[in-house]
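Running log. JK asked me to keep both predictions on one page so they can be read side by side. First protein, sequence followed by its tokens:
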Amino acid sequence: MSLQSELKKILKIEEDGRQLLEDARREGEEIVQEHRKRARKIQEDQQERLADWEQKRRSELKEKIDKEVQTLEKRTADRRKRLQAMVEKSRNETANKVLGWLWENQ
């Protein structure tokens, strides 16, 4: 009986070892899953921060471009007004010269 009891003890130790091994494997898988979950969360957060940064940068650039366009439009409008004034002045001077010449040559 001693041999049988020794075999039972060995089988019990083996069974306990298998159970411990299975528990350790499950725990290892849980740890791996938790690390993967954290890594995904970190990656998602980084992607979100990058998207926010890109959006902010685009907004800043758009604002800068809009200001530059407004400045250029204002300059163009000012130049157009000056040119129109010069054309009007030249037209008036030419008309006055023609009228003066016609008056003198009547």
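And the second, directly underneath as requested:
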Amino acid sequence: MKELLKERLHHYIVVNNPELLVRTGGFSIPQYINDKVELAMEQLEKHHIARMTNDEMIERYMALMTAELLPSKFNYLKAVIEQEYPREFTALREQGVLTSKVIGIMERCADAFEGFGFSTEAEVDNTKLRHAIIAIVHREL
């Protein structure tokens, strides 16, 4: 179970928060994953997990381990680029540089994300944040 959770969390990070891999150079990620898995397992042991199916347990573990990684600025920014600049998005993806380009733009958007309070709610409905992000993306592309 522990190894499966480590694999799932690593995959989640690669897909939703790849900036963590770039920012840390990948060196502390194994320790981060191990710590998250251990903490989640300790927390859920206190609850009655014996009554859960394997899939339910994995779902609960993943929710605990990924809570602080939400919402994904990477996915938000990638979606904005895909919606507002579809040709550029396709070109970047075909060139194999989409992830690195999004991470680079994400770093330049840090003040906008901070200033407009990026959150799960803002991800859905924050017009000012979206416009600020679009302006930055426009300059970067």
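Observation for JK regarding the second prediction: The chain has ten helices and no strands.
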